[in-house]
Amino acid sequence: xxxxxxxxxxxxxxxxxxxxxxxxxxxxxxxxxxxxxxxxxxxxxxxxxxxxxxxxxxxxxxxxxxxxxxxxxxxxxxxxxxxxxxxxxxxxxxxxxxxxxxxxxxxxxxxxxxxxxxxxxxxxxxxxxxxxxxxxxxxxxxxxxxxxxxxxxxxxxxxxxxxxxxxxxxxxxxxxxxxxxxxxxxxxxxxxxxxxxxxxxxxxxxxxxxxxxxxxxxxxxxxxxxxxxxxxxxxxxxxxxxxxxxxxxxxxxxxxxxxxxxxxxxxxxxxxxxxxxxxxxxxxxxxxxxxxxxxxxxxxxxxxxxxxxxxxxxxxxxxxxxxxxxxxxxxxxxxxxxxxxxxxxxxxxxxxxxxxxxxx
Length: 360
Prior knowledge:
By secondary structure, the protein is of the alpha/beta class. Helix content is 37%, strand content 20%. The chain has 13 helices and 11 strands.
């Protein structure tokens, strides 16, 4: 059985948790993933063969060292060997917001799409995962274009609409390779918890009248997202993930009765994300129901658990010759998939059926 050869765009905190996660579970039974094996693949079958970044601190270093460079602050939880994979310069575009230049120390100018495509081919990568900062619209499209040019699978972990965009999905189908996304749902993150609570209200006949979700954290993701213009797609992604549960979800949004998204950057929190969720509803005989919840998690371990599943599902799809948007895996693992299930339980059943149809 072959290894799953993975290329990474964006060597930040998410990349650190993902790379470390593979080595952490070399000889342990994994927690928080769909299964020890997806198809024939275990987590230990993942091999990192290429990486791209724009930070002067990271480019040129082995990925095992680059994932611990400032401003990354993901805790070291696994011992890594030197991987022999040098971080390559990537396209800059809008990947670094003006207020993030001091933290990221980006190169003045990065290479073009063809450079990335060539490196993907040279490395023998099966797939490319996009881990760029939120708001990196142009840069994400550049990496998606490079994956198309190199005919590699593409997993979009951030809220830029690629897999869920019919035009992009069609391009991947024509190229004969699969695409998965958009915007990862954490293992037990704010969005999946919010969806579950809204689903519970709806299932039990309570009318949701208003709801909010606000998140705070202390890593560069939250610093990046202090600029509202970087958040347009993020708010759409998180909001649609919740409103899709309700038949009147769009109406709730139009009335301004729902607000979801990052709220503030609190440096001392580091990778800890704190989420506050509020729901107000109307129950039997018009009596009110109010729910207030606080969730505190390590943001990047939540992300990594899901991405390690996504990588293995993508490899299964590649093995089977699938192309275009992967509907069922995307619906279960991502906030803004091509087709939104009405609940995560339904999305889970879709994924199980998908795997059964592939013979797993």
